[in-house]
UniProtKB/TrEMBL annotation, chain A:
Keyword Translocase tagged: no
GO biological process: L-valine transmembrane transport
InterPro entries linked: Brnchd-chn_aa_trnsp_permease (IPR011606)
Name of the protein described by the UniProt record: Branched-chain amino acid transporter AzlC
Keywords, alphabetical: Cell membrane, Membrane, Transmembrane, Transmembrane helix, Transport
One term under GO cellular component: plasma membrane
Domain of life assignment: Bacteria
Pfam families, alphabetized: AzlC (PF03591)
Automatic annotation (TrEMBL), chain B:
Keywords for the protein's UniProt record, in alphabetical order: Membrane, Transmembrane, Transmembrane helix
A Pfam family it matches: AzlD
Keyword Membrane on entry: yes
Organism for this UniProt entry: Vagococcus carniphilus
Highest taxon above the source species: Bacteria
Transmembrane segment boundaries: 6-30, 42-62, 82-105
Classification via InterPro entries: Brnchd-chn_aa_trnsp_AzlD
Protein name as it appears in the record: Branched-chain amino acid transporter AzlD
């Protein structure tokens, strides 16, 4: 079995090495996330526990924000669910690749899947590399531990830095959305410029209009579905 | 400092479950069903659309019984962030430039 994997994609250590380029990203956002959490009044334990159990950058910013604003738990959970629906799609394409892997191992891979680890994994798949389960674990577990430690560091720093808002740290989440959007649309924007812009514009306009009649969380969901519908419809013409 | 509020714990566990399920369910499904091309096509737009919606949401200020307005501060900070994001294609640089820009806007006291 071992011999059928591509060179450099076999051991846990190979996976760790593959994770290194993304580490700085986790550290930067993790520290910001920890600082925002601590300065929002969450305990260090809450911040770290969130990283261990939820393990999602954008969701953790949103959960923190909603906890501070006193939103009901149901709304927090529902919003987090929506924010993370994108992982469903990511896992779907990864699952195709690991169809032969046992269910338990597959669940292990999916549990620690992030935007970044997905990117690294799919780049390997694109290069037609045969990756081992140990390699994926090296990639995923390194990222997981780095994330937990970064948010812990941020939460500790949160005591030292008095007002992260004055430093603009609360804006890290919005900036990350911008970064993630750019990574998402980079290719479609080249191949289907008009259609991609139209989908995004339809999301923006419907969100603005819907925000007058629905709660903002529901508006986000409805605007997303409208965007997907327009995207799927215009795709047919090609 | 190390205490945890029960409702916060509940929120974290609830969020943990709804974060975990989308990550693992496709692995269970993939062993049993295959999605139609139509469904796959529709779903392929979800990441782009939901991220756009979340970004636009950060630019909006919802006012009760009044028109929704624009958060000028966030809008202004977004411009250099978008430009740097397109140039570097790096999540880290996008975040750094965004945070620094917002810090500067608040330091100058533009709004």
């Amino acid at each position: 079995m071992e011999s059928s994997y591509s060179k450099g994609y076999v051991t846990f250590k190979d996976g760790f090495i593959a994770c290194v380029p993304t580490i700085l990203g986790y550290v930067g956002i993790g520290i910001a996330c920890g600082i925002v959490g601590k300065s929002s009044g969450l305990s260090i334990l809450s911040v770290v526990l969130m990283s261990v159990i939820v393990y999602g950058g954008s969701s953790q910013f949103i959960i923190t924000g909603m906890l501070v604003s006193g939103a009901p738990i149901s709304a927090i959970v529902f919003t987090t669910f929506l924010v993370n629906l994108r992982h469903f799609l990511m896992s779907m394409s990864v699952a195709e690749y690991f169809k032969e892997t046992s269910l338990l191992k597959s669940i292990g891979i999916g549990t620690l899947l992030t935007d970044e680890s997905y990117g690294v994994l799919m780049t390997a798949v694109l290069k037609e590399k045969q990756v081992s389960f140990s390699w994926v674990n090296g990639l995923n577990i390194t990222a997981y531990l780095v994330w937990i430690l970064s948010t812990l560091l941020g939460a500790i720093l949160g005591n030292v830095i008095p007002d992260p808002q004055s430093l603009g740290l609360d804006y890290a989440l919005v900036a990350m959305f911008i970064g993630l959007i750019i990574l998402q649309i980079e290719y479609p924007l080249k191949v289907r410029t008009k259609a991609t812009l139209m989908v995004m514009l339809s999301v923006a306009i419907s969100l603005y209009l819907l925000s007058h009649v629905l709660s903002i969380e529901l508006s986000v969901l409805a605007a997303t579905l409208i965007g997907c519908m327009i995207g799927a419809m215009t795709d047919d013409k090609h | 400092m190390t205490n945890i509020n029960f409702s916060i714990l509940l929120a974290i566990i609830g969020c943990g479950i709804v974060t975990w399920l989308p990550r693992i369910l496709p692995f269970i499904f993939s062993k049993k069903v295959t999605f139609s091309d139509k469904a796959k096509q529709f779903m392929s737009y979800i990441p782009m659309c939901i991220l756009t919606a979340l970004f636009i949401q950060s630019l909006l200020v919802v006012n009760e019984n009044k028109m929704t307005t624009i958060n000028i501060e966030n809008l202004l900070a977004s411009l250099p962030t978008i430009i740097v994001g397109f140039i570097t294609k790096s999540l880290m640089w996008t975040v750094i430039v965004g945070v620094v820009t917002m810090g500067l806007i608040r330091y100058i006291g533009l709004f």
